[in-house]
Amino acid sequence: MTHPSRSAPALAGPVGLELFSPPTFWRCEPSWSWVSRPLEDHLLWCVLDGIGRLELNGNTRELGPGVCAVFAPGDAPTARHDPRRRLLVFGMHFAVSPAGVVPGERWAEVGDRVLLGALARSSDTAYRRGDALGRRQAELCLEQLLGLIWDAAYSPQPSATDTAIQEVAQAIRQDPSRDWSVAEMAGQAALSRAQFTRRFVAQHGTSPAQYVIQARVERAHQLLTETGLTVTQVAAALGYTDIAYFSRQYKQRTGHSPSEDGATGRAPRRPVP
């Protein structure tokens, strides 16, 4: 099951960013504490290591790896940490529009800490090159970080089972020619066949078997339009021994035959329901 999500405010138009300070890492000193004056601009604050506590407007958040905050002008946060497990923080001052990209509670916990750390390092390295492209790359990393924090603040957090089902679906898309069985997929998600099928349909709106067929058709379209393979070769590559059956499945989902796509290299259409 997923946790209930908070209602995310609607955002209109593109996001505009301007950095006011270099992207910076800092390992807080053992005696460190923070009592901020009201901020004049926005501040990104991402905890990569250590533990502590953050307070803002009477609300308190325990700090640990993955906890990120986006403060707005006028905020006056305070923080402290455990000197035996000092905070390692990454952040920068910036301006952003629309201002609504700042989560209402200001903080959220980003689950993908590997991506969080990679974006922080990339932003820092690019900015310190000192050229216009490096500054732009740092801004793009900041935009991605804000997106991660937004998702963490407002999107439902998947359960371990939901994540396992997502991983199975991703594996199908990556290797659709494999001889997938529902029993194998269910085993990978540590569920019975019936439980797996029910949860898979709830997540993806179709059965596991139909999902495999759709993934094969999408890969077939790519092979037909982007390579010199024939319809027979594509069908064989994707595990079909009956070309007529492959052609029926393909046409049912694309609205046209594989031979048409092989001849014209047409752009993909939306699948037929």
Short description:
By secondary structure, this protein is of the alpha+beta class.
Features:
43% helix; 273 residues; alpha+beta; 19% strand; 4-stranded antiparallel beta sheet; disordered N terminus
What topology does this entry show?
Blueprint: E1 16-19, E2 24-27, E3 33-35, E4 42-49, E5 52-56, E6 59-63, E7 67-71, E8 78-81, E9 88-97, E10 107-109, H1 113-127, H2 132-154, H3 160-174, H4 182-188, H5 193-204, H6 208-226, H7 231-237, H8 243-254, H9 258-264
Antiparallel strand pairs: 1-9, 2-9, 3-8, 4-7, 4-9, 5-6, 5-8, 7-10
Mean pLDDT reading? 89
Largest sheet: 6 strands, antiparallel
Return Rg in Å.
24 Å
User: Which structural class is indicated by helix and strand composition?
Assistant: alpha+beta
Number of helices: 9
Please bin the fraction of helical residues.
40-55%
Ends apart, CA distance between termini: 27 Å
Strand content: 15-25%
Helix and strand run: EEEEEEEEEEHHHHHHHHH
Q: Which parts are unreliable, with pLDDT below 50 for 5 consecutive residues or more?
A: 1-5, 267-273
Gross morphology: elongated
Number of strands: 10
What does this structure look like?
By secondary structure, the chain is α+β, with helices and mostly antiparallel strands. 43% of the residues lie in helices and 19% in strands. The protein is built from 9 helices and 10 strands. It has helices spanning 113-127, 132-154, 160-174, 182-188, 193-204, 208-226, 231-237, 243-254, 258-264, and strands at 16-19, 24-27, 33-35, 42-49, 52-56, 59-63, 67-71, 78-81, 88-97, 107-109. Strands 1, 2, 4, 7, 9 and 10 form a 6-stranded antiparallel sheet that branches. β5 and β6 (59-63) form a beta hairpin. α1 runs antiparallel to α2 (132-154), α4 packs across α5 (193-204) and α6 packs across α8. The longest helix has 23 residues, at 132-154. The chain is elongated and about 70 Å long. The two termini are 27 Å apart. The model is unreliable at 1-5 and 267-273 (pLDDT under 50).
